[in-house]
Amino acid sequence: MEAGECSAIGGEGDGIWAKLVPTDAQCSGIDITSGDMVIHSEVTCFSSKKQSWCLIEKVPHSGKATIKNISQGPIIVDEAIVGTEETVNIKYGSEIVSGPHREGHLVFHFKETSFQKQDTKALMIPLDVEHAKCSICLNIWHDVVTVSPCLHNFCNGCFSEWLRRSEKKCRDVVCPQCRATLQSVGRNYFLRNIEEAILQTFPLLRTSNDELALLDNRASVRSNLVLGAQKPSSRNRSSGFSSEESFASGLACPQCGNLIGGFKCNRATAHLQCQACSGMMPSRPDVGIPQQCLGCDRAFCGAYWRAQGLDPGGEYTICSPETFQPASRWTISRVPDTTHEYNRYEQDITEWCIRQMGKTVQATVLEWITKLDNREIDRARLQLKHAEAVTSRTHLCSDCFCKLVNFLLYWFRLSMPRHLLPPDASNREDCWYGYACRTQHRNADHAKKRNHVCRPTRG
Ligand SMILES: [Zn+2]
Ligand SMILES: [Zn+2]
Ligand SMILES: [Zn+2]
Ligand SMILES: [Zn+2]
Ligand SMILES: [Zn+2]
Ligand SMILES: [Zn+2]
User: Fold this and answer.
1) What is the pLDDT of residue 9?
2) So which residues are the signal peptide here (predicted)?
3) Is residue 333 a part of any domain in this protein?
4) Nearest ligand, CA of residue 178?
5) Among the listed ranges 5-19, 33-47, 298-312, which one has the minimum average pLDDT value?
6) pLDDT in tens, 304-363
7) Which of 89, 94, 92, 96 shows the shortest CA–CA distance to 112?
8) In a domain, 370, yes or no
9) Is residue 314 part of a domain?
């Protein structure tokens, strides 16, 4: 089937109160922006001709709407035929077919869009601003973290500083508010929204930019930190373990109890659990060794233990350095399946282009990493958490390296002049949904017919 195009009279903008959502993913939804709006779109799957075929009108203050058939023939609304110039009620969820038969015509669902917005706005939670203050600095939390088991909340920067001091004194980490011995600390994204909402409502409570910069500078909690020294290994690491068990029994941290590389953990040392091997390592933000991936903020231990001179294969569960290394050190031999959103056809073309140029995937990726370093490419599509900071020297986990490769090879393909593509691929029109097209990986015909290495122009 050819891609259907849908569009509507009337601009986009804030006044969208409902939407016609097509059942065909190829077709984009129509925003209904004014109280009464003529829908002007394609009506069949086969022709690209647009026409005005119905009028949707909001019935004020009733939560209801009507649809008037202004086309030449009948349309179907909720399985009932509606003749020319007839008007019927519709409700949210109603099904509207743009002609007398489902086959060959476009099918839409009528959905409200403002409802959800009103709903969240209407959800008012009484909140005492005093309860949203950090008991260390007495300001509204900034980048709030929550400790367990007592679940008290603090600014990331304030708590990180507290942690650093406890560590210096080799004392158990206790809660600055209630003195409970702490087990872990992590960022709290839910409360962060509340933090922002409060500051929007009461701008005067905002802390000065200098203070915020100081807090950000001190903040060291990125992924979840396990607090306190880890119990020695229970000596059964070779037997199967669930991740929960391993966390509870503590896959031993090599530096708990042993001086390695001039460092030994103390009672207050915060630990990170490696996402690859589940082993523990002390969190040491001040020593300049990467312990967390800049692409996903998750902890990986390979680079840290290499810097401590510890090799995998010994008594402890640790990763080999290859699982967490600078982007330029990763090797890659073929175009990943994810590069063109599982579109095999584009994947083959990219491989083909690389071969035609007498290069390898590895060389091509390195070449484009250099362009990234030189800030020659727009990073908008780079799906990494700290995309702006990523360079060839950035330590990345394998998942994030793969995302980087996808991004670089996309740009490599965009840079290829059309006439250098294989003959049957050089004259294709762009799919309107571009790289975001959801049909490209399941419909081989569509993948062949349209170019998908391009930006979406709609949808
Ligand atoms: Zn604070
Ligand atoms: Zn507490
Ligand atoms: Zn340790
Ligand atoms: Zn990562
Ligand atoms: Zn590891
Ligand atoms: Zn497509």
Assistant:
1) 30
2) none
3) no
4) 2
5) 5-19
6) 999 999 998 888 889 999 999 999 999 999 999 999 999 999 999 999 999 999 999 999
7) 92
8) yes
9) no
- Final residue before a domain boundary, out of 165, 194, 221: 221
Do 350 and 394 share a domain, yes or no?
A: yes
pLDDT (mean) for 46-50: 77
Percent of the chain with pLDDT over 70: 89
Cα 96 to middle of ligand 4, angstroms: 45
Q: Domains in the chain: how many in total?
A: 3
The ligand placed nearest to the CA atom of residue 140 is 1
User: Ligand 4 centroid vs 9 CA: distance in angstroms?
Assistant: 44
Domain range for 392 is 344-451
CA of 395 to the centre of ligand 4 (A): 9
Task: Find the ligand nearest to 2 CA.
Answer: 6
Q: Could you tell me the CATH number of the domain that includes residue 29? A: 2.60.200.20
Ligand at shortest distance from the CA of 162: 1
Ligand 1 centroid to 189 CA: how many Å? 16
CATH number for position 162: 3.30.40.10
**Cβ–Cβ under 8 Å, residues 99 and 117:** no
Residues 209 and 146 occupy one common structural domain? yes
Q: Is the domain of 176 the same as that of 152?
A: yes
Return residues with CB closer than 5 A to ligand 1 (ion): 134, 136-137, 155, 158
Q: What is the mean pLDDT of residues 153-171?
A: 92
Q: Stretch 193-201: mean pLDDT, rounded?
A: 90
Among candidate residues 87, 106, 122, the one where a domain is terminated:
122
Which ligand number lies closest to the CA of residue 436? 6
Distance 272 CA to ligand 6 centre (A): 42
Distance 196 CA to ligand 1 centre (A): 15
One domain for residues 68 and 106 = yes
pLDDT (0 to 100) of residue 5? 36
Q: What is the mean pLDDT of residues 118-147?
A: 84
Query: What pLDDT is recorded for position 231?
Result: 58
